[in-house]
Design goal:
single chain; about 675 residues; alpha+beta; Rossmann fold; alpha-amino acid ester hydrolase ( Helical cap domain); Jelly Rolls; 3 domains; ten-stranded mixed beta sheet; seven-stranded antiparallel beta sheet; 13 helices; 28 strands; globular
């Protein structure tokens, strides 16, 4: 659930999945249980401090049901500074449309949302999208854009346009300009405002937007099904008009293992008839249904200035930000500031830029600090607020030319003329070699040599985070911070392979898109391939802390931080829409992206690549024997198989790394 939920005790938003404009996070640290009384006291203290620091205008609230072209009415909450309409002050609109409910918005929550923007003065608009909470109509998950031939042909672009036109006519003393922003599903909706955009929409900021939920966002990654997430989120969104949290006390690792496949788990939850769950079960490949929902194919040009925002450790929608930027940037009009796309990437989990200082990343099982750099505050005050101030009010101060990225390890902001940057970096290959070596020299001489082999057993899959694994948004869940968890909890297992460099004698900076190119074989007829790029800290490391599942604290010596990671399902090696079995024993080349990275592996650290074939239960188990539909695979299809990673002159498995010029490679 990525919407903001109201804390009735204190009257402001508590960020539960970081939709919304980004309210101050008052939750206990992920994975750290706290009693309701302790949490409530902490919330009240945080609210009191934030309200005391706020020096902007007081906001007043109103509500309206806005009619759209097919007669449906959309519930909308509006806030504007007290007295502004009487004083003749013309203000722009700043709007968020969301499936997560807007009724709980209060004047305090608005004033604490984006303090720089609230202080400057805007007309803030929050709207329940069709079919959700108090809005009429039918909800459709990531409703596809359709042709608009009649008034019945509606989608999120038409609802946005109709809402904007109503606001311009009925809300007094507006300046005729509208900005739209949102995180996650609201990020998807912000991008909808930029497709067939109303002329009044002058700036949008899709943040961690759901973009293609089959290729790389919420529900699938390169064909591998995100089982726990799809299970929880679809129930929350489609089983009722509100998003009630799915929470189970059972270890989800055990639950999904016991129910064999997604069909079994879905039947146990009584969710098989929910629309999206039904499509998971009936159309697991990249069919027209999923293709029609994909946003990037609609992005033939940036119609309005667009600020794309994402986090390198986003556990939900890291892919969408970069995919939308790439699609828009490729069609950008040269030297046209009104048709320009900007990109901000930072050291955040899902929505982490929208709240808090942003001076650290992680939770119970691993926390990294950034030398006092308050990355969240910097983003909100120096990038986001100036962006809207410039395009909605004409105020100077927005100096971003293209991309701003916070480079971890070095812990500094950098600005690039394009992403990925071209100047100052060159491509190198990090080869997976026998003996667990990660080398920057290509293998020569030997042929058909395996660099490593392991037995992948679906009966004992590699967990993706420390057990017990809670429901995605359940009590005590470490979901929000699992990408920063110390990987030592699995790196010693026998059903994966590790490849490491020697201790680095100088800093090595990797900036840009990281690619995996693995030559592999299996004794089965299908396999999943997971590759992680890991920074291994020295024993005397500072700026990082971790503890084990038993709660034993300690420093960060030996900490293994994932910097880039991604999965690829073998059956889709030729086509996402036409899966094929893998021939037993055949060496196949698998190529896929680990996405963008901006990280310095410091002197004294080591670089490590980890390869495995299960990542459970974030991703469903591949039976490893080919079946037409993994969602309904019988228990008999799940078999242990030997997976081989090749590392030879004719099969040079490697990672493509964009490395800074002058780096001292081992």
């Amino acid at each position: 659930m990525r919407g903001a939920k109201l804390s009735a005790a204190v009257g402001l938003f508590v960020v539960a999945g970081l939709g919304g404009f980004g309210f101050a996070q008052t939750m206990p640290a992920a994975g750290a249980p706290a009693s309701p009384s302790v949490a409530a006291r902490a919330q009240k203290a945080d609210v009191a401090a934030a309200l005391k620091a706020y020096t902007g205008p007081e906001y007043v609230r109103s509500e309206v049901m806005i009619p759209v072209r097919d007669g449906v009415k959309l519930h909308t909450v509006i806030f504007r500074p007290v007295g502004s309409e009487k004083h003749g002050e013309k203000l722009p609109f700043l709007m968020e449309r969301t499936p997560y409910g807007v009724d709980g918005n209060s004047k305090a929550s608005v004033e604490l949302t984006k303090q720089a923007l609230a202080t400057s003065g805007y007309i803030f608009v929050y709207q329940d999208i069709r079919g959700r909470y108090e809005s009429g109509g039918q909800f459709v998950m990531n409703r596809p854009v359709v042709e608009h031939a009649t008034k019945r042909d509606v989608d999120e672009t038409t609802d946005t346009r109709d809402t904007v036109e109503w606001l311009l006519k009925h809300v007094p003393n507006n300046n005729g300009k509208v900005g739209v922003l949102g995180v996650s599903y609201p990020g998807f909706l912000a991008m909808m405002a930029g497709i067939d955009a109303d002329p009044a929409v002058k700036a949008i900021s899709p943040q961690a937007p759901m973009t293609d939920i089959w290729v790389g966002d919420d529900f699938f990654h390169n064909g591998a099904f995100r089982e726990t997430y799809g299970f929880d989120y679809v129930q929350e969104m489609e089983a009722q008009k509100t998003d009630g949290v799915v929470s189970s006390k059972e270890d989800q690792y055990k639950f999904f293992l016991d129910h064999v496949n997604f069909a079994g788990a879905a039947a146990a939850a009584g969710m098989t008839k929910l629309p999206t769950a039904n499509m998971f079960l009936s159309e697991p490949a990249y069919t027209k249904f999923w293709q029609d929902m994909a946003v990037e194919r609609r992005l033939t040009k940036p119609e309005v200035p667009t600020l794309e925002v994402g986090g390198y450790w986003d556990q939900e929608d890291m892919w969408g930000t970069q995919a939308e930027y790439a699609a828009l940037r490729a069609n950008e009009k040269a030297n046209d500031p009104l048709h320009k796309v900007f990109l901000v990437l930072g050291p955040w989990n899902h929505g982490g830029w929208s709240h808090g200082a942003g001076d650290q990343l992680g939770g119970k099982f691993g926390t990294v600090t950034f030398d006092g750099q308050k990355t969240g505050e910097y983003y909100r005050n120096e990038l986001e607020a100036p962006f809207f101030e410039y395009y909605l009010k004409g105020k100077p101060g927005f100096g971003l030319q293209d991309t701003a990225s916070f480079r971890t390890g070095e812990n500094q902001w950098h600005r690039y003329p394009v992403w990925p940057p071209k100047e100052g970096f060159h491509a190198v290959r990090a080869y997976l070699e026998p003996g667990g070596k990660l080398s920057f020299k290509a293998p020569t001489g030997q042929y058909n040599v395996t660099a490593a082999a392991y037995v992948s057993d679906p009966a004992d899959p590699v967990p993706y985070r420390h057990r017990p694994i809670q429901s995605t948004y359940g009590e005590g869940s470490t979901w929000r911070t699992w990408l920063a968890e110390d990987q030592r909890f699995v790196s010693g297992r026998k059903d994966l392979a590790n490849f490491e460099t020697p201790v680095l004698t100088g800093d090595v900076t990797v900036t840009g898109d990281v690619g995996a190119d693995v030559f592999g074989a299996t004794t089965g007829t299908d396999a999943d391939w997971i590759v992680k790029l890991i920074d291994v800290y020295p024993q005397d490391a500072t700026g990082v802390t971790t503890e084990d599942a038993a709660g034993t604290g300690g420093g960060g010596g030996g900490y293994e931080l994932m910097v880039g990671e991604e999965i690829f399902r073998g059956r889709y090696r030729k086509s996402f829409s036409a899966p094929e079995a893998v021939k037993t024993g055949e060496v196949v080349e698998y190529k896929w992206s680990l996405h963008g990275v901006d990280h310095t592996f410091l002197k004294g650290h080591r670089m490590m690549v980890e390869v495995q074939s299960t990542w459970f239960p974030l991703y469903d188990r591949n039976p490893q024997t080919y079946v037409e539909n993994i969602m309904t695979a019988p228990a008999s299809a799940y078999e242990a198989e030997t997976v081989s990673v090749y590392g030879a002159a004719n099969y040079p498995s490697h990672l493509e790394l964009p490395v800074a010029d002058g780096a001292e490679l081992p």
